[in-house]
Amino acid sequence: MGEITINGLIEGGKATSGPPFGPALGPLGVNVAKIIADINAQTNMFSGIKIPVKVLVDSSTKSYRIEVGLPPTSALIFKEIGVQKGAKAKDEIIGNITIDQLKKIIKSKEASLYGGDKAKIKQVIGTCKSMGVTVEGMPALEAMKKVESGELKI
């Protein structure tokens, strides 16, 4: 049969032997509990956030590999500042993010951000701007300018 792919969207660290993975993995004759434990170990850092997960099983050898997708930057910002939705109006502020929280987001999204360090920082700050989130108490555009000038180090 070859390789079988099972896709699911789960909350980080909270996969169970129920749907989407358990019922799909059971008939393949693999150790479902071990696969679920591996998924949870690999997604634990995204606790509280739904993320895409793909399990690829070789039906002849019963070997498997897990591919964990990344949540959107906005979901990580929401989690860090403790809100559920972005700003409704262009000038509405829904929260503030600290430098430490920005570092955490940049580190977890590093593989999907482009450019050098400053470019990566500015991409995340740009998302903050569009969501109505300030950076260290200042408007996101101001924070972006300070990153560019070197005045704000992350």
Describe the structure.
The chain is α+β, with helices and mostly antiparallel strands and about 150 residues long. The chain folds into two domains: about 5-70, Ribosomal protein L11, N-terminal domain; about 75-150, Arc Repressor Mutant, subunit A (Orthogonal Bundle), CATH 1.10.10.250. About 40% of the residues lie in helices and about 20% in strands. The protein is built from six helices and five strands; from the N terminus they run βααββαβααβα. The chain has a three-stranded antiparallel β-sheet. The longest helix is centred in the C-terminal third of the chain and has 15 residues, at about 115-130. The protein starts with a strand and ends in a 5-residue tail after the last helix.
Provide mean pLDDT, rounded: 90
**CATH fold name of the largest domain:** Arc Repressor Mutant, subunit A
Structural class: alpha+beta
Q: Any low-confidence stretches, pLDDT <50, length ≥5?
A: none
Overall structural domain count: 2
Helix content: 40-55%
Order of helices and strands: EHHEEHEHHEH
Shape: elongated
CATH architectural label of the largest domain = Orthogonal Bundle
Q: Specify the number of helices.
A: 6
CATH superfamily of the largest domain: Ribosomal protein L11/L12, C-terminal domain
Whole-Å distance between the termini? Answer: 49 Å
The first-level CATH class of the largest domain is given as Mainly Alpha
Beta fraction: 15-25%
Main sheet properties: 3 strands, antiparallel
The strand order across the widest sheet is 1-2-3
What's the β-strand tally?
5
Radius of gyration: 19 Å
